[in-house]
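Question (not urgent): is this output format expected?
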Amino acid sequence: MEKKYLHILSFDGLSRVDIDKMKELPAFGEFFKGASGCINVKTVYPSLTYCAHTTISTGTYPARHGVINNTRVQPSRLSPDWYWYDRDIKVPTFQSYAKKAGYDILSIFWPVTAGSRDIKYNMPEIFANRKWQSQIWVSMVNGSPYFQYDLNSKFGKLRNGHKEPELDNFSHASFMYALDRYPAHINMVHYIDLDSQRHEYGFNSREAQDAMLRLDKRLGDLVTKLKQKEIYEDSVIVVLGDHSSIDGHTNIYPNKLLERAGLLTKSQDNLVASYKAVCKSADGAAYIYAGQDVSDKDLMEAIEPLISKGAIERVYNREEAQEMGADPSCRFMLEAAVGYFFKDEVEDQALIRVLEAPKRSSKVCINNHGYNPSSKENYETVFLVAGKGIKKNVFLDEMSLTDEGPTLAAILGLEMKGTDGRALVEILEV
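Got this back:
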């Protein structure tokens, strides 16, 4: 079978409500004219970047693939470790199927790929989370050393830590260069600019609109590059999002209520020192974990003030959480009302206005995600495909994020087995 080139662009935070604006932009507008797919894609729960991208790669829900949050349950740490590592994924990935079929893969900042043996040229999304670690060392040992050395040597000056748009400027310059220097049949890149601007400035902010312009230019650069390399006609381009987001006004600190109930103790820096029960934030959602000696009744009584004040929209039990694809080991899952975000710290109050919240982190987020996609309006994301072997202008009314991995495999003539989703064969030329 003749191999084709597959280029996957993840625009983190791209929402269905962005499409009309994106269609007015030069590169995306032209791309959309010949694309197929869906602009009504239901994401996963919790709707976080790492959960979603692992679902994209595996075609399964978080309960099965194991990446049930962005970060781990480490309540004594202000900055918990993330689910960076490929070894955290409990089921086969699209990348593993592709490698077995003989495809070379290039990846820049794709989530949950640190330490992957399936990616030939890998710059994983991972950062130094200990004082004694350096960013370059952590990235090098968990990816492709020479590949990363080359990119950092040429384009490292474009970076400004993890700040945007500088980080995307670096990843994009690296991606364009790598397409020439490190040929692969599958090229994957994760752009974070839009999501970052929305977190800091709001969904419809000027900063977010400017980020869309930059993403459009990056798509246009890719098309130009593929034409220069004379592989455009043999290529498939995928533009996808992972979740939408919602502006907010108030942070929720359930661990304060668990402390009042005698279920945890706090440290001097307002973190969790020890616990019988603990809340783990997933931004617009949260998990409650508890030992067997803590009753459901005690937990519900502890968090009841947040329910009565309208900050918590819904409480799901373990079985309901698992049915929706979330962590089956939790005792409860909390769904925030629109405008509320969960936090892990043990503050003096259980509810604090966002802009009045303690500034222990690098940013104050006025926009967030993590919410149940079935309970929030206009919360869908997008999946668009164009190129060799793809029908034009075939749009599904709806689809699940779990359909994306099987579809990516099908584009390459492969079949992923045992997934929760299906290949969208209706967009493929037979």
